[in-house]
């Protein structure tokens, strides 16, 4: 089996898919994969197109992380 390189459009589509399909349980892995895709983009224009989804993924991770810490604290009391 041979692996092929993704085009810029395919990378953008995959980051967008990760954004819409991520869950509280998969956010860490999805964000890591999106970051790898972002790093592999060759132009600033490509990265700018993906920035809104990257920002959204980072915000979800932050919000879900805070909610998880609050729940753990409540259980510990």
List the helices and strands and how they pair.
Elements: H1 8-21, H2 27-40, H3 44-76
What does this structure look like?
The chain has 77 residues and is mainly alpha-helical. The chain has one domain. It is built from 3 helices and no strands. The chain has helices at residues 8-21, 27-40, 44-76. Helix 1 (8-21) runs antiparallel to helix 2 (27-40) and helix 2 (27-40) runs antiparallel to helix 3 (44-76). It is elongated and about 50 Å long. The N and C termini lie far apart (53 Å). The model has no long low-confidence stretch (mean pLDDT 89).
Give structural attributes.
77 residues, mainly alpha, elongated
Concise structural overview:
By secondary structure, the protein is mainly α. It is 79% helix and 0% strand. The mean pLDDT is 89.
């Amino acid at each position: 089996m041979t692996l092929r390189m993704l085009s810029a459009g395919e990378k953008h589509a995959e980051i967008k898919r990760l954004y819409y399909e991520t869950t509280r349980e998969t956010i860490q892995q999805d964000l890591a994969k999106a970051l790898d895709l972002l790093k592999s983009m060759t132009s600033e224009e490509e990265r700018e197109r993906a920035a809104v989804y990257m920002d959204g993924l980072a915000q979800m991770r932050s919000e879900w992380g805070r909610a998880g810490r609050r729940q753990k604290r409540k259980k510990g009391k």
